[in-house]
Amino acid sequence: MTKIVTALLFLFIGSYTYAQNEEVTLEYIQENDSIIFQVKSVAIIPIDIVSKQVDTIFPKIVYKEVATVFPNDSVRGFIRVHINDFENLKQARKERKIYTVEAHYGDRRNAKHDSTYLYTLPYQRGRKVEIEQTFFGKSSHKNIASRYAIDFGMRTGDRVYAAREGVVVFAIDHFTEGGKRKELTHKANKIVIAHSDGTLASYAHLMHKGTLVKKGDTVTKGQHIGYSGSTGYSGGPHLHFVVREPGDIAVPIYFEDYEGQVLKRGKRYKRKH
Ligand SMILES: [Zn+2]
């Protein structure tokens, strides 16, 4: 039966802050002539479950629904599929009843970036680091999820510090490879930290075994959290740093000592505090 579920539902279609599969599980229950879906979460922050019914003939979304599943809880009944559709995928396709379910970290309806917050530069105090790519950077900071990302020219093994206090949503450091190959897109080691305003910071391309924090840890601003590297889709060692509202929406961020300034590509910035 599991096979049918994966055939009918395109689960967790890859992206940036999508939930790790092992933290969210999708189950189904039969109720009379319907199959009802239930999502359970063991993540430490709320997760938005976005379910869509897609018209397969004229590719468009027929309906979209968002449910929020809270830590160690479940949400039930957000998709109801007739038993016949469930058992006959081909028929469901003909009748344009294809469903997708995505899971995103964060509760979109209760998150709003505090635009007055001043972040600390994520490297050692007293150090100067060059900006390799900034907001709307031509090589990879173009889409809604990364247009306000900043690439710091840090080397493999350089210490990475928390730019803002928060709670570690997850920390991955088992990946070993890096390069400009498509299959490495989702293979960057990273730390994701949830802030009090509901936004999420991502520190990406960390080195293999380069994290010092784990899921659930509380971190302070300026805490040493890991080591920079070049894992995943990366042209060379650097730290890709971005803050997002839930749903993968990057937000502009500003730093202490450089208030109101967009960091410029090619310029070096000193962390003074
Ligand atoms: Zn980047």
UniProtKB/TrEMBL annotation:
<feature type="signal peptide">
    <location>
        <begin position="1"/>
        <end position="19"/>
    </location>
</feature>
<dbReference type="Pfam" id="PF01551">
    <property type="entry name" value="Peptidase_M23"/>
</dbReference>
<feature type="domain" description="M23ase beta-sheet core">
    <location>
        <begin position="148"/>
        <end position="247"/>
    </location>
</feature>
<protein>
    <submittedName>
        <fullName>Peptidase family M23</fullName>
    </submittedName>
</protein>
<keyword id="KW-0732">Signal</keyword>
<dbReference type="InterPro" id="IPR050570">
    <property type="entry name" value="Cell_wall_metabolism_enzyme"/>
</dbReference>
<dbReference type="InterPro" id="IPR016047">
    <property type="entry name" value="M23ase_b-sheet_dom"/>
</dbReference>
<dbReference type="GO" id="GO:0004222">
    <property type="term" value="F:metalloendopeptidase activity"/>
</dbReference>
<dbReference type="InterPro" id="IPR011055">
    <property type="entry name" value="Dup_hybrid_motif"/>
</dbReference>
